[in-house]
Specification:
There is one protein chain. The chain is α/β, with parallel strands linked by helices. It is built from four helices and three strands. The protein is globular. 16% of the residues are buried.
Length: 88
């Protein structure tokens, strides 16, 4: 399964989490924060590929948050070998 999350014109954390909810299967109780995203991604069974499109532009809009997302993706991939995350 492959999911593409287009971060074009995403300028807030809330918009980021809305894109997550729109694109990947999240439980109703998804908390809209990075801890909740970590839980969702580590629980996915695959193989699954998640591609964040326009990630570099996104990190320019929200540099600290973008860096936190990048670290989260690395941690998730270390925890869940069935998941490949691509930051484009």
């Amino acid at each position: 399964m492959r999911y593409e999350i287009n971060l074009d014109n995403v300028t807030t954390k809330m918009q980021f989490h809305e894109k997550i909810r729109e694109t990947i299967p999240c439980p109703e109780y998804y908390g809209g924060n990075l801890d909740a995203l970590y839980d969702v991604l580590t629980e996915m069974s695959g193989p699954i590929e998640i591609v964040f499109l326009n990630f570099r532009e996104f990190t320019h809009q929200l540099p600290g948050f973008g860096e936190a997302v990048e670290h989260l993706c690395a941690d998730v991939q270390a925890e869940n070998p069935e998941l490949l995350i691509v930051l484009e």
